[in-house]
Every structure is written in structure tokens, then in C-alpha cells.
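Whiteboard transcription, Tuesday session. T.W. wrote the C-alpha cells on the left side:
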């Protein structure tokens, strides 16, 4: 039985993240999503909001067996607590690889028993980032092709009257 963890900022969750979770579920017996609390970043949505948005998006997609947690601390630590032996991450363009490799190598130094596994994203999600989604929403653009419906609604509410 292999338990995997999908960690990230998810500020906000996008269809790319959701797709990764759906595909990850088919590969691993159990999958947990972990929303990272990074005190160096000022997120648009609080960790609690990001957890709620991910949960609502999973529910809407009919995915009932993936738990979502907020976590402030080392990712390898929550992986150990949840009994996960795999970190699942997505790869978009080559730029992702460089950053991802540093994280994976460092995580291996911290927790040699945990492996990082990458899934390539879908072609249609190649240019999709949470940062771009936030920017488009902030300027009043329609983000509904890029994010689950609960996230699109939350972004509209957040920027209502500000564009
Ligand atoms: P982080 O700040 O930890 O990079 P993100 O929320 O940006 O967190 O991404 C979390 C994970 O989801 C990363 O592995 C990232 O590569 C992956 N990811 C992000 N966007 C997409 C996408 N459009 N398609 C597939 N995977 C993605």
C-alpha cells in the first residue's frame, strides 16, 4: 500500500492541480494534498481558505477519498506523520525541472526513505500557474477556463469592485 502526498502552495488551486490529483489517485493507493503555510510569502488566500477551496473543488469533481491538510513546517515531516513514502509533484516547462530538482534533492537529504515522483502536466495546462490566474482575476479577466468553479467564484468575490 503506497501513500503519496501532493504538497504545494495552491494559491489558488487550478485545474492543473486538480488533474494531477486525479491522475495521482490512479497511481497510488492513498493520496493526501498538503497546503503549505509559508511565512515568507503573503498569499492571496489564507491557508484555511486554500484548504476549503481544494476540498470544494475535489467534492465537485466527485473525488471523495483525498484528504486536504494545511501544514506549516517541513513537508517531509507531515509526509512521515501521514505515513507517505512518495511526494507527488507536477512538471510543466523545463523551468519547473530545475526548481523541482533542488527541492527533491534537499528532501532526500532530509528524508532518504521518501521518493519524489513527477507527473507531466497535460498539454492544455502547460502555461497554467496560480500566479497568472491571480493576475488575470485581479484585472477582471475570466478565469473560469483555468480553475474549478468554487475557485472562480472565490476570485470574483475577492476582487469584486476592485477592477
Ligand atoms: P509550489 O509553490 O510548491 O510550487 P504550486 O501550488 O505552484 O506550489 O504547485 C504545486 C505542484 O503542482 C507543483 O508540483 C507544480 O509543479 C504542480 N503544478 C502547478 N501547476 C500545474 C499545472 N498547471 N499542471 C500540472 N501541475 C501543476
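and on the right, the sequence the group agreed on:
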Amino acid at each position: 500500500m503506497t501513500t503519496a502526498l501532493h504538497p504545494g502552495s495552491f494559491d489558488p488551486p487550478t485545474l492543473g492541480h486538480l488533474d494531477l490529483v486525479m491522475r495521482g489517485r490512479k497511481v497510488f493507493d492513498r493520496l493526501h494534498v498538503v497546503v503549505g503555510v509559508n511565512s515568507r510569502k503573503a498569499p492571496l488566500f489564507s491557508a484555511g481558505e486554500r484548504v476549503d477551496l481544494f476540498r470544494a473543488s475535489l467534492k465537485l469533481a466527485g473525488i471523495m477519498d483525498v484528504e486536504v491538510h494545511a501544514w506549516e513546517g517541513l513537508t517531509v515531516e507531515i509526509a512521515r506523520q501521514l505515513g507517505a513514502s512518495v511526494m507527488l509533484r507536477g512538471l510543466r516547462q523545463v523551468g519547473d525541472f530545475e526548481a523541482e530538482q533542488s527541492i527533491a534533492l534537499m528532501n532526500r537529504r532530509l528524508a532518504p526513505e521518501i521518493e519524489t515522483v513527477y507527473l507531466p502536466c497535460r498539454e492544455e495546462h502547460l502555461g497554467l500557474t496560480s500566479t497568472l490566474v491571480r493576475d488575470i482575476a485581479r484585472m477582471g479577466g475570466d478565469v473560469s477556463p483555468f480553475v474549478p468553479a468554487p475557485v472562480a467564484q472565490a476570485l470574483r468575490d475577492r476582487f469584486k469592485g476592485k477592477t
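Someone added at the bottom: The longest strand covers residues 30-36.
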